Every structure is written in structure tokens, then in C-alpha cells.
């Protein structure tokens, strides 16, 4: 099974967008793990599309048509809204800390337990969990 890029990866400073594009491409190629499919277009994907003011379905169609990351990014900015530097900063901060002392904390703890990571105290956010689960080194320093 192939994994999509890390949620920490960026395009024009925006975290998560490249990962969403990878998930769309991998799914279209029949190479996306079954566990990912129920959440396509939901959760983080949905939040990212809402930030950009585009529908997931339209964005997925652009990706499936063969556009590059840069071309999909340009399409999204033309079709939807261009986030300001402040909006990108707030988005990145929110997304990179998702699961740390918020309404997703219980989900993170459950996922850690299911994945055998319950003793890994350095996994403090959903981004951390995703990277650990997909066998990548963690990128964020622990939150104090």
C-alpha cells in the first residue's frame, strides 16, 4: 500500500493540501488503503476545501483530470477564495495542533490505542498520529 504525503507537507505554505491531492490520486489509481476511503472528502479534506471555498467533488475532478499540484492550487484559487497570510497561519496552527486538548483528543487517544501507540507520549496531535501510523518520523516538537 502506498501512503499519501504527510499532513505537514505544504503548497504555498498551506499544510495538508498536498496530502489531500495524494489521497485523491491514490484512490483513483486503486492504491489507497481501504481505511482511508470512508473519510475522503470529509473531516480534514472538508475543512481544507471550505477554507479554499471549493467543493471536494470539483477539486477531486480537477485532480483526476491529471492536473499537477500547482495547477490544482491555481484552479482552487481561481474558483474559490484566496486565503490571506493570516488565514493560512491560523489554518496551519489549528490543523497542526488538532487533537491536542480539544474536541478530537478522545479520538486521538482511541486511535493511538488501536494503532498500538498508547505509550508513545510524543504523539500529541492527529498530524503526529498520521505520521507515526504511516511510518514517518514525527516532524513537530512536543507541545509543552
Q: What about the largest sheet?
A: 2 strands, antiparallel
Strand content: under 5%
Radius of gyration over C-alpha positions, nearest whole angstrom: 15 Å
The mean pLDDT is 95
Spatially, the strands of the biggest sheet line up as 1-2
Structure description:
The protein has 144 residues and is mostly helical. The chain has helices spanning 17-28, 44-52, 56-64, 69-79, 85-96, 105-115, 126-133, and strands at 10-11, 14-15. The chain has two domains: 1-82, no CATH class; 97-135, no CATH class. The radius of gyration is 15 Å and the shape is globular. The protein starts with 9 loop residues before the first strand and ends in an 11-residue tail after the last helix.
List keywords for this structure.
144 residues, mainly alpha, 2 domains, two-stranded antiparallel ribbon, 7 helices, 2 strands
Write a brief structural summary.
It is built from seven helices and two strands. With 144 residues, the protein is mostly helical. The protein is globular, with a radius of gyration of 15 Å.
Q: How are the SSEs placed, and which strands pair?
A:
Blueprint: E1 10-11, E2 14-15, H1 17-28, H2 44-52, H3 56-64, H4 69-79, H5 85-96, H6 105-115, H7 126-133
Amino acid at each position: 500500500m502506498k501512503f499519501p504525503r504527510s499532513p505537514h507537507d505544504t503548497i504555498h505554505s498551506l499544510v495538508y493540501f498536498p496530502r489531500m491531492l495524494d489521497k485523491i490520486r491514490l484512490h483513483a489509481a486503486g492504491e489507497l488503503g481501504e481505511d482511508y476511503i470512508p473519510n475522503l472528502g470529509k473531516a480534514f479534506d472538508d475543512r481544507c476545501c471550505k477554507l479554499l471555498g471549493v467543493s471536494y467533488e470539483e477539486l477531486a475532478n480537477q485532480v483526476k483530470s491529471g492536473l499537477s499540484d500547482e495547477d490544482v492550487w491555481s484552479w482552487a484559487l481561481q474558483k474559490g477564495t484566496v486565503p490571506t497570510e493570516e488565514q493560512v497561519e491560523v489554518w496551519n496552527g489549528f490543523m497542526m495542533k488538532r487533537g491536542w486538548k480539544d474536541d478530537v483528543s478522545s479520538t486521538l487517544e482511541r486511535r493511538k490505542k488501536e494503532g498500538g501507540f498508547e505509550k508513545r507520549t510524543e504523539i500529541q496531535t492527529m498530524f503526529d498520529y498520521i505520521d507515526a501510523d504511516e511510518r514517518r518520523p514525527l516532524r513537530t516538537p512536543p507541545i509543552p
